[in-house]
Design goal:
By secondary structure, this protein is of the alpha+beta class. The protein folds into two domains: 224 residues, Endonuclease III, domain 1 (Orthogonal Bundle); 120 residues, Nucleoside Triphosphate Pyrophosphohydrolase, CATH 3.90.79. It has 14 helices and seven strands. Strands 1, 2, 3, 4, 5, 6 and 7 form a seven-stranded mixed β-sheet that branches. α2 runs antiparallel to α8. The longest helix is centred in the middle third of the chain and has 20 residues. It starts with 6 loop residues before the first helix and ends with a helix. Bound molecules: iron/sulfur cluster. Iron/sulfur cluster binds next to α9 and α12.
Length: 357
């Protein structure tokens, strides 16, 4: 079987089975770019409301370039990987300042934008402009390694390069089959991703319903559950944090995370990483907050993961009747009623919601 023989049945399947997603109703490269960046590591159903909100408030490159940082990261709050939102704005400003506000139309120009790698550039050029540019994401890699019966780790450099070469050939072949009014580069790349999302899923793929089942080496050799071969995950580290909601008369104290750190630009309650499991919140409060003798009240424990870290955030409340002097801390007081408008990290949003209950 030549791998090119998958193209026609895949295109036919996509024409009848593609999901009606809001970003599929446009060819605006800006709208497609936003959707592609949001979709990285995030499920379609989560992204839809985020994308809609973003497009309502920042409908074009100029509005994104002109927006203030809090607006941008507030619209991203909950999606994680916040450097992506910042890179979107950096790229929008570059487009306005250096490209007269026009989204680049060629792969090199798109690749030159901050935060844009070859997957995103391939997605924009193929989906918005129907250019025969390839893309490989996790879904495409899974489908192709199974179709080709590749039993080496799918993230191994040679395998990755092989997959890019194969898809580059396939998308060109798809365009070669194109008739007037068809957009086969856009359709083929989206079809590969759609098949991975709906049929060729990581566990229990629906091989019976697969339009490519007759072409699939993993299926023929009964190796579907062994392919793709995934690399071992990095070992995880546990970390303990203690944080304080310091409150007086409906106001709470928050700090902005400094630039260069994970979640920079977001706001959070004062908190510290404590290596020693014996550290007591009252001792920490008296040394870090300099509020004298305090008895913090336990509010909640939030477990969350960031990359290889499993974080345990223990949140405490310190209530005061008068505005405390927090000479050792940089930050600001905000009313609890306005906390919803401030971009907070996900863990601290949960703590804020608990506090407001
Ligand atoms: S036959 Fe099964 S394993 Fe092969 S591509 Fe289709 S869904 Fe994936």
């Amino acid at each position: 079987m030549h791998i090119r023989s998958i193209v026609a049945p895949l295109l036919k399947w996509f024409a009848g089975n593609a999901r009606d997603l809001p970003w599929r109703r446009t060819r605006d490269p800006y709208a497609i770019w936003i959707s592609e960046v949001m979709l990285q590591q995030t499920q379609v159903k989560t992204v839809i409301p985020y994308w809609r909100r973003w497009m309502e408030q920042l409908p074009d490159i100029a509005s994104l370039a002109a927006a203030d940082e809090d607006t941008v990261i507030k619209l991203w709050e909950g999606l994680g990987y916040y450097s992506r939102a910042r890179n979107l704005q950096k790229a929008a400003r570059l487009i306005c300042e250096e490209l007269s506000g026009k989204f680049p139309r060629d792969l090199g120009g798109v690749l030159a934008l901050p935060g844009v790698g070859r997957y995103t550039a391939g997605a924009i050029c193929s989906i918005a402009y129907n250019q025969p540019e390839p893309l490989v994401d996790g879904n495409v890699a899974r489908v192709l390694t199974r179709l080709l019966g590749i039993e080496r780790p799918s993230k191994q450099k040679q395998v990755v390069e092989q997959l890019w070469l194969v898809t580059a050939d396939l998308v060109k072949h798809a365009v070669g089959l194109q008739r007037t009014s068809q957009r086969n580069a856009a359709a083929f790349n989206q079809a590969m991703m759609e098949l991975g999302a709906l049929i060729c899923t990581p566990r229990n793929p629906l091989c019976h319903d697969c339009p490519l089942k007759g072409h699939c080496i993993a299926r023929k050799q009964n190796k579907v559950n062994r392919i793709p071969v995934l690399a071992k995950r990095a070992p995880v580290s546990k970390r303990r944090f203690i944080g304080f909601i310091i409150a007086w008369h409906g106001n709470v104290f928050v700090q902005r995370r400094p630039s260069g750190e994970v979640n920079s630009g977001f706001w959070e309650f004062p908190n510290w990483l404590v290596d020693d499991t014996q550290v007591q919140p009252a001792d920490l409060a008296s040394t870090k907050l300099a509020l004298g003798q305090v008895e913090p009240e336990s509010l909640c424990i939030i477990n969350h993961s960031i990359t290889c870290y499993r974080n345990r955030l223990e949140m405490f409340v310190i209530l005061r009747t008068r505005k405390p002097l927090l000479a050792k801390l940089k930050g600001k007081w905000v009313s609890v009623a306005n906390l919803g408008e401030l971009p907070l990290t996900t863990a601290h949003r949960k703590a804020a919601n608990q506090f407001a209950c």
